[in-house]
């Protein structure tokens, strides 16, 4: 890539040669955009200008001033918090942070273009130096451990059926990673929707190579130095996560195979009869009439509105599945409207593409176009009219079992299915299918993003005072603005339970906090032990849904008898006790992008061993969760990063043990009824009373569990649980004083939500041996056990002091 000419201005650097062009700008501090077109002369651009781009992932259009100057064969570009040196004789660059620290270095940026029928073919490749010891986290929904170094991934949303713990690609493509080297983080987002492949120091141990099938490489380089700095910038760029309604953080129950309204009533009755909490039941594809979206099979669901009302009396809501494939059936209004308005994906030759999914034959709305999204969004009025609380988007890779040959509509009967033409599951639309002016190859990966956006915006328009709940299987960067993501058809086997933890943490690193895997496993039959262990892990998934496939063993918590039922009940009740903390973490995610589930390494970015810990996860900043993910284990190995960690098995305060020193592996006792969890010194949890379903996130009962440390930091976000009404943020800060003579906590609250409680309980874990009640000021001393001090305080307390004598 030879660049010979340069224009430098306040907003942008443009460098070009006879065949290539590069544009550099800065959206915000610490972030530089490097848009390279290594074959610009061959791609129909008005060379050297790069064409206007409507990004699917990046929100807003920011241009911060940059300073630039030419130095020989290089251009130096500086902005607040980041700097880049671009070499004109190759288009390669060196990326540094504001302190001049070298973060990343490209080795080559190359491309090729070939004109071909029906569409030109491109290849663009970026090779980055992968220094020894640098770890690569994120990449969206990917298999493998937390650090993906040594792996190779494809970005092409795929219903890869049946998925195994090593299957790639899966349903989601997020071309973003966070690199960590010597405790310093930086990140890279490749804003390309085209199919791409990354080789993370696998083929060549010193190179990270990313190749796309598009004509350019649109990169955002993000300086840290902390992981949270990188994630904050990444979600600033791709959009802040939507705040979940409280009810969607409760327990969900689903099954592909719930027969009819009576089955649904039975599920709700079963939950209540067994004393199990539940907020949501999902209706899978069988509720529809002939798999036609926005219809009911009235023989199964004679009165959906009455059903919704009935389950609501038990505090339960309904979510319905919606697939993108539209049944080709003249007279079916959704089809007729889509056809009349030219909203459908077309074949290369111009006719409407006809394929097969659950509806057969089926056509596909072109959800990459804003006007089609708007129309699709308006269809969600149906959900609101039918008392449906949220929408579950499936098959939106899009999956397409087969495509009919022939010219498509207007003469679909002209194209008979060729023998053997039916593609295997996992298949999608043809690369050259047309989405308006674009090819499928370009917009395939954003099909689901458009669908989720349509659902989110449609539900918001229809019910502006509620927060939409949308669940999606496929996704692209930016999906956090609209939807929760679940990991698709994980099977009921231990390997998938284990795989869920690093995969969900990886999605979190990639800006998507609202995530979960099917609790109990979807494909194959679960058993009592697996379902119990999966439930214990699943109560820490932000999206917690038990789901199973037709033909497999029934999987509701009572199906396996005792002791499993009681243990799963205890786990689900714990989930409801944990809601004040989870809700607060979701709020933090909505503001900063920091996920609920985090790699353990986030607690100690410079700690190599923490990076290798993949079968355990952080829930927020300070709680380490290490569920058992293997069969017949009553102990497990847990890595605790440096620092002091208080064992709180099942978050249970009563057996308060002495804190453990981290920076080492320990063996945790974990009989079937126990989930090992550890609270870091300075960390806190806010728990409430268990309940059968959610009501409000303004908690009438609240207990703080604080692991006393030198620096304590805790927060609690409260509001009505939905909509945009009044809220309150409570912050607690403090710790041991430097002289070691006192421990103090200060509480500050902001916001206009009145307190729903008059008192709170504070459980403080620390060295309180022999403490006299007189040593405590600002709270009522209830008890002191070795290591645990229990205090009762007025809900509006502002300061607590403890003399340590
Ligand atoms: O081809 O709607 O991942 O959760 O139950 C299977 C039926 C289609 C796949 C989803 C799964 C759902 C199932 N769907």
Write the layout of secondary structure elements.
Blueprint (H helix, E strand, L loop, with lengths): L4 E4 L4 E4 L4 E5 L5 E7 L29 E5 L2 E6 L2 E6 L5 E5 L4 E13 L6 E9 L5 E4 L13 E4 L16 E2 L2 E6 L2 E7 L5 E5 L6 E6 L4 E7 L3 H12 L12 E3 L7 H13 L6 E4 L20 H9 L4 E6 L3 E2 L5 H8 L14 E2 L5 E2 L6 H9 L2 H5 L4 E4 L8 E2 L30 E2 L2 E2 H4 L3 H16 L7 E3 L2 E2 L7 E3 L7 H16 L5 E2 L11 H11 L5 E3 L17 H14 L1 H14 L4 E2 L9 H5 L4 E3 L3 E3 L9 E6 L3 E4 L12 E2 L2 E6 L7 E4 L3 E4 L15 E5 L4 E8 L7 E10 L5 E10 L7 E7 L10 E2 L2 E6 L2 E7 L4 E5 L2
Parallel strand pairs: 13-30, 19-20, 19-33, 20-21, 21-25, 25-29, 29-31, 31-32, 43-47
Antiparallel strand pairs: 1-2, 2-3, 3-4, 4-18, 5-6, 6-7, 7-8, 8-9, 9-10, 10-17, 11-14, 12-16, 14-15, 15-18, 16-17, 22-24, 23-26, 27-28, 34-35, 35-36, 36-41, 37-40, 38-39, 38-41, 42-43, 44-45, 45-46, 46-51, 47-50, 48-51, 49-50
Helix pairs in contact: 5-8, 10-11
The structure holds ligand MIG.
């Amino acid at each position: 890539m030879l660049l010979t000419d340069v224009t430098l201005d306040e907003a942008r650097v443009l460098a070009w040669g006879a065949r290539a062009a590069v544009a550099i700008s800065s959206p915000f501090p610490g972030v530089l955009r490097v848009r390279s077109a290594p074959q610009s002369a061959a791609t129909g651009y008005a060379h050297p200008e790069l064409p206007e781009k409507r990004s699917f992932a990046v929100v807003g259009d920011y241009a911060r001033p940059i300073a630039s100057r030419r130095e020989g064969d290089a251009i130096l570009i500086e902005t607040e918090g980041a700097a880049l040196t671009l070499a004109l004789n190759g288009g390669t660059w060196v990326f540094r942070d504001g302190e001049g620290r070298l973060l990343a270095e490209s080795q080559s940026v190359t491309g090729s273009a070939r004109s071909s029928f029906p569409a030109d073919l491109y290849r663009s490749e970026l090779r980055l130096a992968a220094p020894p010891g640098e770890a690569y986290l994120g990449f969206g929904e990917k298999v493998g451990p937390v650090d993906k170094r040594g792996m190779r991934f494809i970005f092409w949303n795929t219903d890869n059926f049946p998925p195994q713990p090593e299957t790639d690609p899966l349903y989601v493509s997020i071309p973003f990673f966070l690199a960590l080297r010597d405790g310093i983080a930086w990140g890279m987002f490749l804003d390309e929707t085209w199919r791409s492949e990354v080789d993370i120091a696998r083929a060549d141990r010193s190179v990270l190579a990313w190749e796309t099938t598009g004509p350019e490489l649109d990169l955002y380089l993000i300086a840290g130095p902390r992981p949270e700095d990188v994630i904050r910038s990444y979600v600033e760029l791709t959009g802040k996560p939507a705040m979940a309604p409280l009810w969607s953080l409760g327990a969900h129950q689903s099954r592909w195979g719930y027969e009819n309204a009576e089955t649904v009533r039975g599920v709700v009755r079963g939950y209540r009869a067994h004393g199990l909490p539940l907020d949501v039941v999902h209706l899978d594809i069988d509720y529809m009439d002939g798999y036609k979206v926005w219809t009911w099979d009235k023989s199964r669901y004679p009165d959906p509105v009455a059903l919704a009302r009935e389950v609501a009396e038990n505090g339960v809501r309904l979510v319905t599945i919606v697939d993108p494939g539209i049944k080709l059936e003249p007279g079916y209004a959704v089809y007729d409207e889509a056809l009349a308005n030219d909203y459908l994906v077309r074949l290369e030759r111009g006719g409407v593409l006809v394929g097969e999914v659950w509806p057969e034959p089926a056509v596909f709305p072109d959800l990459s176009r804003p006007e089609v999204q708007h129309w699709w969004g308006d269809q969600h009025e149906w959900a609101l009219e039918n008392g449906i609380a949220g929408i579950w988007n499936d098959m939106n890779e899009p999956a397409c079992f087969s495509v009919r040959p022939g010219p498509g509509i207007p003469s679909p009967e002209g194209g008979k299915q060729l023998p053997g033409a039916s593609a295997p599951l996992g298949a999608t639309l043809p690369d050259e299918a047309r989405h308006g002016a674009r090819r499928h190859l370009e917009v395939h990966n954003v099909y689901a993003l458009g669908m989720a956006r349509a659902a989110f915006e449609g539900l918001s328009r229809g019910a502006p005072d509620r927060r939409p709940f949308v669940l999606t299987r496929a996704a692209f960067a930016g999906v956090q603005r609209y939807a929760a993501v679940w990991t698709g058809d994980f099977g009921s086997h231990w390997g998938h339970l284990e795989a869920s933890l690093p995969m969900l943490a990886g999605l979190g690193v990639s800006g998507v906090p609202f995530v979960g895997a099917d609790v109990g496993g979807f494909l194959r039959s679960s058993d009592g032990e697996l379902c119990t262990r999966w439930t214990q892990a699943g109560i820490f998934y932000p999206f917690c849904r038990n789901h199973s496939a037709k033909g497999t063993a029934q999987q509701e918590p009572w199906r396996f008898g005792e002791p499993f039922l009681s243990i799963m009940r205890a786990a689900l009740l714990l989930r409801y006790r944990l809601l004040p903390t989870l809700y607060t973490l979701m709020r933090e995610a909505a503001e900063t992008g920091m996920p609920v589930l985090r790699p353990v390494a986030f607690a100690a970015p410079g700690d190599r061993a923490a990076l290798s810990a993949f079968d355990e996860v952080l829930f927020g900043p300070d709680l380490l969760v290490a569920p058992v993910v293997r069969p017949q284990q009553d102990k497990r190995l847990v890595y605790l990063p440096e620092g002091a960690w208080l064992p709180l098995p099942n978050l249970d305060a009563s057996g308060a043990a002495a804190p453990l020193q981290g920076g080492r592996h320990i063996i945790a006792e974990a009989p079937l009824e126990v989930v090992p969890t550890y609270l870091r010194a300075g960390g806190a949890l806010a728990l409430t009373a268990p309940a059968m379903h959610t009501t409000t996130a303004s908690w009438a009962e609240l207990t703080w569990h604080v692991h006393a440390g030198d620096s304590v930091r805790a927060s609690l976000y409260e509001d009505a649980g939905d909509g945009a009404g009044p809220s309150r943020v409570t912050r607690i800060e403090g710790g041991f004083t430097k002289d070691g003579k006192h421990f103090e906590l200060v509480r500050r609250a902001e916001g206009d939500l009145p307190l729903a409680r008059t008192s709170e309980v504070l459980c403080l874990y620390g060295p309180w041996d022999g403490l006299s009640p007189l040593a405590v000021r600002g709270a009522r001393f209830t008890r002191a056990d070795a290591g645990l001090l229990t205090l009762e305080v007025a809900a509006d307390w502002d300061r607590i002091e403890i003399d340590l004598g």
